[in-house]
Design a protein that fits this description.
It is built from no helices and 22 strands. It has 180 residues and is an all-beta fold. Strands 2-7-12-16-20 form a five-stranded parallel beta sheet, with no helix packed on it. A five-stranded parallel beta sheet has the order 3-8-13-17-21, with no helix packed on it. Strands 4-9-14-18-22 form a five-stranded parallel beta sheet, with no helix packed on it.
Length: 180
């Protein structure tokens, strides 16, 4: 639940995350799970407050998941929520590159890479600005995935805007992945 309830010229900045060169084995859970809590990330901001959320770099990992879960899951719902005046929220970039998913090629990983972004900005008022950074998914190897190797889901963006709010979504690049 961070950042939330920011006023005046309040500023929140979170550094970047790097998950690099790991062997991740998960039985009955996701390999890497990134969750921005519903309604509570970059929400209820007013005046000239600013929130800068991290970029994510997930590179050179071996991820083996069983039990019907995901190799990497990113989830956000209804974020940011109810922002006013000149509040600004910046989501960083996401890079998922050169990882191996389900290396022993057994069944059991439901999704290799799963992104779900729903209700991106609910209640943007006045001159609020929200930016979702670039998403890059390249040069990964995904073996024997049960459902979808790479799933990108967006549902309802810029929901309930009033005034002159701005939502900018960065480029999405998916390329040079091996899906077997």
């Amino acid at each position: 639940e961070t950042p939330i309830y920011m006023y005046d010229m309040a500023t929140f900045t979170m550094g970047n995350f790097t998950i690099d060169n790991n062997t991740i084995t998960a039985n009955g859970s996701d390999g890497i799970y990134i969750n921005y809590d519903d309604y509570y990330t970059g929400s209820y901001m007013e005046n000239d407050s600013t929130a800068t959320l991290p970029s994510w770099s997930i590179t050179d990992n071996t991820i083996d998941v069983t039990g019907g879960y995901h190799g990497v899951q990113f989830y956000t719902y209804s974020n940011p929520y109810d922002n006013y005046d000149n509040a600004t929220v910046q989501y960083g970039n996401t890079l998922i590159d050169n990882n191996t998913f389900n290396p022993n090629k057994d069944a059991g990983m439901d999704y290799g890479i799963y992104f779900w972004i729903e209700d991106l900005v609910v209640g943007g008022y006045d001159n609020t600005i929200t930016t979702l950074g670039k998403i890059t998914i390249t040069d990964n190897r995904l073996y024997n995935i049960v459902s979808e190797a790479i799933y990108l889901g967006f549902d309802e963006a810029a929901y309930s805007f009033d005034g002159t709010p701005t939502l900018t979504v960065g480029d999405i690049e998916v390329g040079n992945n091996i899906i077997d």
